[in-house]
Structures are given as structure tokens and as C-alpha cells.
Design a protein that fits this description.
The complex is a heterodimer. Helix content of chain A is 28%, strand content 29%. By secondary structure, chain A is α/β, with parallel strands linked by helices. Chain A has two domains: 168 residues, Rossmann fold (3-Layer(aba) Sandwich), CATH 3.40.50; 115 residues, TPP-binding domain (Rossmann fold). Chain A starts with a strand and ends with a helix. Chain B contains six helices and 15 strands. In chain B, the strands form three sheets. Chain B has a nine-stranded mixed β-sheet with strand order 11-10-9-12-8-1-6-7-13, with helices on both faces. Chain B has a two-stranded antiparallel sheet with strand order 2-5. The chains are: A alpha/beta, B alpha/beta.
Chain lengths: 315, 253
């Protein structure tokens, strides 16, 4: 079987889970597409999962109330072994990519990370992924039982099937977590999820200040109905939450239009947005690297151009 | 205690990338120690300087001959000695973790510092894979770390924000930007580094059998329109951009 560890937050199945179901169906590997739901009080999630999968395995346990890498790795491995899964698909989130290698080592299986496409070549599973700061697209393959993580936003979300899959409860023998969590802070952007926005307005250091970010970046985003992104420089300066960061160490986005205001276009930033369908840049420095990847560029001062844009787009 | 810091060599972020055959060809590219690994080296040095009973800091790299340069950088920053498993073969993280685990055991290591994410492969996997092989816990994406006795505390990024944590050694910690500001090797330290031990290990001793094959690599660049608009007249520039976005690119209504 193909085993997918479902991702869910706040009692809802995550979009990434629907994407993993598509990845499983496109992988060319045989057997039922099985979603494993790990957590506590996850009955609603399991029902949502059943709508898209051939079968759902549910581990509804108090020990699974909070994510822990070792616990998740143990759970996924046990189910993979008992169900003789030959393909184990895990989300390309931070947590997914943290425990997936542990599952691969436990199963002594090859690990293909951050796949953007999956397919089979005979018995081998092939995966495409970006490397070298997303400048290179590489294809790799491995045989036998394979552990894969899937890059969020790379596959179309699966639609519900005509008949929902069966649900089964499973038993697990779990280790005690060894890392104690002593505090948490959740950083949320108040706006449209970046990875889902069709148009994104991103502000860089050139925007000047927190106040200007609100005025120009949020102002333009509101005027044209867009999501809001930020560069690392802006996040490091504390102007915006990390949830809005785009780039190598932030989110990867691929909107129809990406509008960069006062962004220089460092390679680490480009690796997160370089695949956008249209890139629009406004920067006062005609030599800024962002212009090299831009479809449309305005050389000018944000303080003058953006108010004019907001004004004109309202007309 | 002994600390193992993993070191990998990557092309400079600005380096031009070319492909020959099925893979990326780094011939002629400027290669440097990965920035993420500099954080690891720096953190090991800081733990020692902050009074932790660190006996030895050992840097480990698996890779071709040139990787020596990255290890020399680590030595010049202040690690005590280095181990180089010299091979031209490129291994996946699950396979490489065998080397890390064996070296950690042979050298009585109780803390491993690895890079969070490479600028080349970006697999974020070796730290976790090594932790699993050793049966140790791991802390990824760490941007704050303290060691008191054998208790590690700190802060790291998680899916939707960050967490403070506490864990007991032995453990694997992976780094990220913000953890520290790596020092530059000074000239006297660069000179001293030349005399430090850089041990060469035969890869055959680790019985490595790669699990992942490269099939193909391509540089895909999207052709961009590169239409430039002069911003001297902001109103006209804004008008023109909006028209292009509406009528040519058709991305806004
Ligand atoms: C390991 C690593 C990971 C990283 N990950 C990320 C990441 O995930 N995301 C990310 O974004 N960065 C990342 N970075 C940082 C990256 O290298 C850059 O430092 C960062 O992207 C720069 O942000 P910026 O463009 O906002 O700022 P700057 O580079 O300072 O650029 C500001 C731009 O604004 C322009 N400007 C200034 N004033 C005005 C004005 N009034 N009107 C118009 N234009 C103006 C300037 O000409 C300049 O081009 C990473 C770096 C490292 C080493
Ligand atoms: N060949 C290697 N030799 C030594 N350390 C490595 C090697 N490959 C990866 N690492 C370490 O593992 C980290 C993560 O690498 P990766 O799992 O490839 O993203 C790097 O930052 C290094 O610290």
C-alpha cells in the first residue's frame, strides 16, 4: 500500500494532505492510497480524510496530542511495517522533513525529499526536486520501499471520491518524547495564506519601516486583493511575522503575479518566488538583481510609485 | 564531552551553476564552507567559551579532495581537529548518516551540530538521520542554544512559530540563521590551523552503499518579459503598469 501521513491543524485536514493524495496517485505505485491520521480527538479529520483516500487508519491517542519527531517517526514506521507499505509519503513541512529521515533510517529505506513530481520507472520511484536554491531541477530515483516528502503547493489537491474510504482504528506502541517543550509562540499572518494567494505583494527593506509596510504593502494588497509577503531582512528587523517570509528559509510561492516592493532580489529570496508566473518589481536601483527576473519593472521610489498605484487601481 | 560539527562544502550563493551530463558541474565554481555549518562550528566554540566542559571539537566532512579547504576553515575558526572521509561519490543523507553515527561513537561524541539546510541539496536530512541511527533526540532549526551540565535548552522554529525546548545529551542539533554570528578566522589562526590534525579516513571502512541515483538535472529558467518602466512620472508609470497587468499579463481584473 501507499501510506500517507495526514497533516492537519486545528481539527481540519490540511491542503497539503490533499496534495499528497494526488502525489500518491501520480506515483505509478500500486495498492490502496492509505491516509494515516495521528492525533487526539481527530474523528472529524478522519472523516475528511476518508473522502479522498481508499482507506484511513486512525490513531486517536493522548500520546499524540502534540507533535514530536520521535513519536511521529515511530508511529509511521510501525504502520508502514504492519501494512507492508512500499511508499511512505510525508508532508514537506518543517515537522515532516524533521521526522521523515528517521522513518527512512528505521526502515533502512531510501529517502527522496521535497518532491515536486513523482513517477515510476519500472520498479524505481522517480522524484523531481529543486536544488541549488531552486535554480536546478533534478530527477532522482530509488528502488524498493521508499520514503518521500512532498513540497507543499506542487500537486493539485485531490477531489473527494464518489464513495469514501473505510476507516480503521490502529494500535501503536509509542516511545516517550525526550524533548520537552517549555514554551510556544505562534506566529500567524492575519491575511490570506501566502501559499494559496493568486497575487502576492511583498515588501523588502526598501519599504523603509513597519508603518510604511502597512501603508504601501498592505495598502496595495488590499486595493488589488492580494496576499502579503516579506523578505528575511524585513522579518529580521521585526517589521513582519515569520509566517510571511518568502525564500529559502521561508515559504515557497508560485502565484500568478508576485509584486516585489523594495526587494533587492537576493538568491535566497529568489529561490522562494522565482517560479511565479509574473514577477513585477519596483525598486529605485535600476541595477537591483530583482529586475533580471522581472516581467515588469518600475525604476522609482516606493514613496511615490506605490501611492499612485493604489490610487490608480481603485479607479 | 566531545562535540562533532558536520561540515559541507557548497558553491558560493552567487556562483554560476552549470550542468554537464546528468548532474551539476561545479568545476570552476567558488566553493565555500556552508553558512549553516559555520553556525554549527561557531556554536561549538561558544559552548566551550561559555564554560561547558568541552574537551574536543571535531569537524567531519565526507566529500572530494577539495573539501579539505572547508575543513581548514573550520580548523582556523577554532575546532581542534578534523576528519575527512575522502570520496568523489555523492551519497544520500540516509547513507551518510552511517559515517556520522560511526564517527560519533568512535570519538565519544555527545553533541552533534549539523547545518539546518544546505544551499545545494537542501535535504535537511542528515542531522535527523544521524540522530535516528544513534537513537538520540534531535532539535532542528535552532536559533538559540544553552548547555548546562548535560541539559540543552534553547529555542527553535516549528511549523507555525517557535518553541522553547529542553533536552538531555546526547543529542543532534541543527542550526539556522540567527543562532550566532560566525567569527572570521584570523591570520594567526589560519597559520595554526595548518598544523592541526586533518585525518583522512578511507570510505571503504564505512561500507557505504548509496540508495538514491541521479537521473537528470536541468537548469530551467522562465523567459521573462523584462519590460522596464521609468518611474520619473509616478502617475504615468502606475497607469502603464496597471494596464500591462490587466491587458497583457491578465493577472488582475
Ligand atoms: C542561509 C540564508 C537564508 C536566507 N533566507 C532568506 C529567505 O528565506 N528570504 C529572504 O528574503 N532572504 C533570505 N536571506 C537573506 C537574503 O540574502 C537577503 O539578505 C534578503 O533577501 C534581503 O532582503 P531585502 O531585499 O528586503 O533587502 P535589501 O537587500 O537591503 O534590499 C532593499 C532594496 O530596496 C531598494 N530600495 C531602498 N529604498 C527604496 C525606495 N525608497 N524605493 C524603492 N526601492 C528602494 C534598494 O535599492 C534595495 O534593492 C537568507 C540569507 C541566508 C544567508
Ligand atoms: N558530505 C557531508 N559531509 C559532512 N557533513 C555533511 C555532508 N552532507 C551534509 N552534511 C551536513 O548535514 C547538513 C544538512 O545537509 P543535508 O541533509 O544534505 O541538507 C549540512 O549542513 C552539513 O552539516
Amino acid at each position: 500500500m501507499i501510506l500517507i501521513v495526514a497533516e492537519h491543524t486545528a481539527g481540519k485536514l490540511a491542503k497539503s494532505t490533499l496534495e499528497m493524495v494526488t502525489a500518491a496517485r501520480e506515483s505509478g505505485r500500486e495498492g490502496p492510497v492509505t491516509l494515516l491520521v495521528l492525533g487526539q480527538n481527530v474523528a472529524a479529520v478522519a472523516t475528511e480524510a476518508a473522502a479522498v483516500a481508499d482507506q484511513v487508519l486512525v490513531a486517536d491517542l493522548p500520546q499524540l496530542a502534540a507533535y514530536n519527531a520521535e513519536v511521529w517517526a515511530a508511529a509511521a514506521t510501525q504502520i508502514a511495517q504492519e501494512g507492508e507499505a512500499h511508499t511512505i509519503i510525508i508532508g514537506g513541512s518543517r515537522s515532516g522533513r524533521e521526522y521523515a529521515p528517521r522513518v527512512a533510517v528505521k526502515l533502512d529505506a531510501p529517502y527522496l525529499e521535497d518532491a515536486i513530481a513523482l513517477g515510476s520507472n519500472g520498479a524505481a520511484l522517480q522524484a523531481q526536486r529543486y536544488t541549488y536554491l531552486a535554480r536546478v531541477t533534478e530527477t532522482v530515483e530509488a528502488d524498493g520501499t521508499v520514503v518521500v516528502t512532498v513540497k507543499p503547493g506542487s500537486f493539485a489537491p485531490a477531489a473527494p471520491a464518489a464513495t469514501p474510504g473505510e476507516q480503521y482504528d490502529v494500535e501503536l506502541d509509542l516511545p516517550a518524547p525526550r524533548v520537552q517543550v517549555t514554551g510556544r509562540s505562534v506566529e500567524k499572518s492575519s491575511r490570506v495564506a501566502l501559499t494559496e494567494a493568486e497575487v502576492i505583494v511583498t515588501g523588502g527593506r526598501g519599504v523603509g519601516s513597519t508603518e510604511n509596510f502597512t501603508r504601501y504593502v498592505e495598502g496595495l494588497a488590499d486595493a488589488i486583493g492580494a496576499g502579503v509577503g516579506a523578505t528575511r531582512a524585513v522579518v529580521d528587523a521585526g517589521w513582519r511575522p515569520y509566517a510571511e517570509q518568502v525564500g529559502q528559509t521561508g515559504k515557497t510561492v508560485q502565484p500568478k503575479a508576485y509584486i516585489a516592493l523594495g526587494v533587492s532580489g537576493a538568491v535566497q529570496h529568489l529561490s522562494g518566488m522565482g517560479k511565479s508566473k509574473n514577477i513585477i518589481a519596483i525598486n529605485k536601483d535600476a541595477e537591483a538583481p530583482i529586475f533580471k527576473v522581472a516581467d515588469y519593472g518600475i525604476v522609482g521610489d516606493i514613496n511615490e510609485i506605490v501611492p499612485a498605484l493604489i490610487e490608480a487601481s481603485r479607479k | 564531552m566531545n562535540i562533532l560539527t558536520l561540515v559541507r562544502q557548497v558553491p558560493d550563493a552567487e556562483a554560476r551553476i552549470k550542468i554537464s551530463g546528468q548532474t551539476v558541474d561545479l568545476e570552476g565554481a567558488t566553493l565555500v564552507i556552508d553558512g549553516m555549518d559555520e553556525y554549527g562550528v561557531e556554536e561549538a566554540l561558544r559552548l566551550r567559551e561559555s564554560g561547558a566542559p568541552v574537551e574536543q571539537i571535531i569537524a567531519l566532512a565526507v566529500g572530494p579532495k577539495k573539501v579539505e579547504d572547508a575543513l581548514r576553515t573550520a580548523l582556523a575558526m577554532g575546532v581542534d581537529r578534523a576528519i575527512h572521509v575522502e570520496t568523489d561519490e555523492k551519497y544520500d543523507a540516509v547513507t551518510l548518516s552511517r559515517v556520522v553515527a560511526q564517527v560519533a561513537q568512535a570519538e565519544n561524541v555527545t553533541l552533534i551540530l549539523a547545518g539546518g539546510q544546505e544551499t545545494d541539496w537542501d535535504s535537511q536530512a542528515l542531522g535527523a538521520a544521524s540522530a535516528e541511527r544513534l537513537g538520540w533526540p534531535q532539535l532542528t532549526w535552532t536559533n538559540e542554544l544553552k548547555l548546562d551540565g548535560d541539559t540543552l535548552t534553547g529555542r527553535h522554529d516549528v511549523d507555525d512559530g517557535n518553541e522553547s525546548f529542553s533536552a538531555t545529551l546526547p543529542a543532534v542539533v541543527t542550526t539556522q540563521q540567527g543562532l550566532n554570528e560566525p567569527r572570521y578566522p584570523t591570520l594567526p589562526n589560519i597559520m595554526k590551523a595548518k598544523k592541526k590534525e586533518l585525518r583522512k579516513d578511507d570510505p571503504a571502512a564505512y561500507q557505504l552503499q548509496g540508495k538514491v541515483r541521479s537521473v537528470n538535472a536541468e537548469i530551467q529558467t522562465r523567459a521573462r518579459r523584462n519590460t522596464m518602466i521609468d518611474g520619473k512620472d509616478p502617475q504615468a508609470a502606475a497607469q502603464q503598469l496597471l494596464e500591462l497587468l490587466r491587458n497583457e499579463a491578465k493577472v488582475i481584473a
